[in-house]
Amino acid sequence: MLLETYVTITQIVDLRWGFVIHGCIDGYSILMIYLSCKTPIQAESVLQLFLFAINIQGIPSRVRSDHGYENSLVTVFMNLIRGLGQGSHITGKSVHNQRNERLWCDVFKEVIDKIYTEFHNLEENRLFVVDSGKRRY
């Protein structure tokens, strides 16, 4: 099944805690292709998730992502597969796609906000000390 467009977005949850939520959404159907929490931010992690997704869904016609370096290997992959000058990878915000933005609001509200709350509670109860000098991962 070849999807028309993927929108790959990397959402930084909080650099304070050192983890990132990566998400990939089909821009046509607004189907969440993947949602994964990783530490730290790495281009290899994003590419690995993307390759897993295309193994199941097929190679998209184009990908949209932000300008972050973590998406650089997906850019290279799409340009190698679809060719330069084909619009295979588009960088920049997707603020005009209201359905996509709404989905990310729902993900934040139903998933990420719960993580924020738990980590704040751990800190307030002194069960997790950010500045302890110990590696988190």
From TrEMBL:
Integrase core domain location: 15-128
Record lineage: Eukaryota, Metazoa, Ecdysozoa, Arthropoda, Hexapoda
Taxonomy, superkingdom: Eukaryota
Species of origin: Aquatica leii
Protein's name according to its UniProt entry: Integrase core domain-containing protein
Entry-linked InterPro entries: Integrase_dom_put
Pfam families assigned to the protein according to its UniProt record, in alphabetical order: rva_4 (PF24764)
